[in-house]
Amino acid sequence: MTVSAHNIVKHFGAFTALNDVSLEAQPGEFLALLGPSGSGKTTLLRIMAGLEFPDSGSIRFDGVDVSTRPTRERAVGFVFQHYALFRHMTVAENVGFGLTVKPRNERPTPARISARVDELLSLVQLGHLGDRYPSQLSGGQRQRVALARALAVNPNILLLDEPFGALDAKVRKDLRRWLREVHQTMKLTSVFVTHDQEEALDLADRVVVMNHGVIEQIDTPDAVYNRPASAFVCDFLGNANKLDCTIANGAVEIGGHRIENTAPPASDGLGVAFIRPHEFDVAAAGQPGVPVTLRRLTRTGPMAALDCLTETGALIEMTTIEPPTGLLPGAALTLVPRRVRAYSA
Amino acid sequence: MSRSVSTTEPRWMRWLLIGLALGFLVLNLALPLAAVFFEAFRKGWDAYVAGIVEPDAIAAMKLTLLVASIAVPLNIVFGISAAWAITKFEFRYKSLLITLIDLPFSVSPVVSGLVYVLVFGLQGWLGPWLQAHDWQIIFAVPGIVLATMFVTFPFVARELIPLMQEQGREDEEAAISLGAGGWQTFTRVTLPNIRWGLLYGVLLCNARAMGEFGAVSVVSGHIRGLTNTMPLHIEILYNEYNFVAAFAVATLLAGLALVTLAIKTLLEWRYRDQLHVSGH
Question: Which of B178, B184, B190 to probe by mutation at the A interface, max A CB count within 10 Å?
Answer without folding.
Answer: B178
